[in-house]
Specification:
Helix content: 40-55%
CATH superfamily: Bacterial extracellular solute-binding protein, family 7
Mean pLDDT: 91
Number of helices: 12
Structural class: alpha/beta
CATH class: Alpha Beta
Shape: globular
Low-confidence stretches: 7-25
Largest sheet: 9 strands, mixed
Number of domains: 1
Length: about 325
């Protein structure tokens, strides 16, 4: 059972809903979900599947209308709309959520998570409950979390050590931690919107970017950056984020259906992601690109001063220690 359900009251436990019976809805409801992903992205596929499950479970009385490809603007704009009640849901990347609730910095700390299993434990643990409670005060919270690997560099140069990053302009989603990570590794962080990255690399405005390999392929950025260097400096995690105003206007039956579909979407996303990783690696290699697997020790050493600095901040240290407590 997804830990995300723990933020709800006991009356909304999914196990207590008999899905075989026709729910007694107050009225047909449409929830709008806007995201900035291409429709062949892992999570775009996941949201389409989730929307179908919501329709099936509600006998057509609930609809999730999806607006992909940044139709409604960048995520920060969509979250602002959600706070005003003008949008219901979005795909919340932790860097984007951090702009509204600082605690999400925890997912930007380099080399904090041992592996994907460690990340999943954190997403379904007590720390996530705290982040959701903090988020509610800002007008949104998360129904599901999706762990999709790690962020690595892709450029037209092989990156074996931090020295290879010196002088390179790398597109990042700007957060204080991300910017410092890039600078300590020798790169110059450049805050370019997600949708403009391909053209920026193509035109030489930047030298590359950093993300997981499935995004590298789904955005077709592999066409303009020919080397994927897997230093795995931070995790990739996104959330299904809902407006508290939208949540509060749902009936208990509607909330339960949405929770059930959101929980199921985590497993579906995992399966799709694992398949897409295999396909993405094949696509990269067939295109004649290189996949480099550098020794990560020099990269970890380069960013150690940043982690040491964070541990001097009592509030940040508590969150970092909470993540470490879920390591095995």
């Amino acid at each position: 059972m997804s830990k995300f359900r723990n933020i709800m009251t006991g009356s909304l436990l999914v196990a207590g809903l008999a899905f075989g019976a026709q729910p007694a809805f107050a009225a047909k409801v449409t929830l709008r979900l806007a995201h900035n992903l291409s429709q062949d992205h892992v999570l775009a596929k996941t949201f389409e599947s989730m929307a179908q499950e919501v329709s099936d479970l509600s006998k057509g009385e609930m609809e999730i209308k999806i607006y992909p490809n940044g139709q409604m603007g960048e995520t920060k704009d969509v979250i602002a709309m959600m706070q005003q009640g003008a949008m219901d849901m979005t795909k919340g990347f932790y860097g984007e959520l951090q702009a509204f609730e600082p605690s999400y910095f925890i997912f930007t700390v380099p080399y904090l998570f041992q592996d994907n299993d460690h990340l999943v434990r954190v997403l379904h643990g007590k720390l996530m409950d705290k982040l959701n409670e903090a988020s509610k005060k800002k007008g949104f919270f998360n129904l599901a979390g999706y762990a999709t690997g790690t962020r690595s560099f892709y450029t037209n140069k092989e990156i074996h050590t931090p020295n290879d990053l010196k002088g390179l302009k790398i597109r990042v989603f700007p957060t204080p931690t991300t910017n410092q990570t890039m600078e300590l590794m020798g790169a110059s962080p450049v805050p370019i919107p997600f949708g403009e990255t391909y053209t920026a690399i193509q035109q030489g405005v930047i030298d590359g970017a950093e993300n997981n390999i499935t995004t590298y392929v789904s955005t077709r950025q592999f066409e303009v950056a020919k080397v994927f260097s897997e230093d795995k400096h931070t995790v990739v995690v996104d959330f299904l984020t809902i407006s508290t105003q939208s949540w509060d206007r749902l009936t208990d039956e509607q909330k339960n259906i949405l929770l059930k579909a959101a929980s199921d979407s985590e497993e579906k996303a995992k399966a799709v992601y694992e398949a897409d990783v295999v396909a993405a690696r094949e696509t990269v290699l067939k295109a004649g690109n290189k996949i480099i697997e550098p020794d990560i020790a020099p990269f970890q050493a380069a960013v150690k001063p940043l982690v040491d600095e964070m541990m001097q901040d009592p509030e940040k240290a508590v969150l970092i220690d909470a993540v470490k407590a879920d390591a095995k």
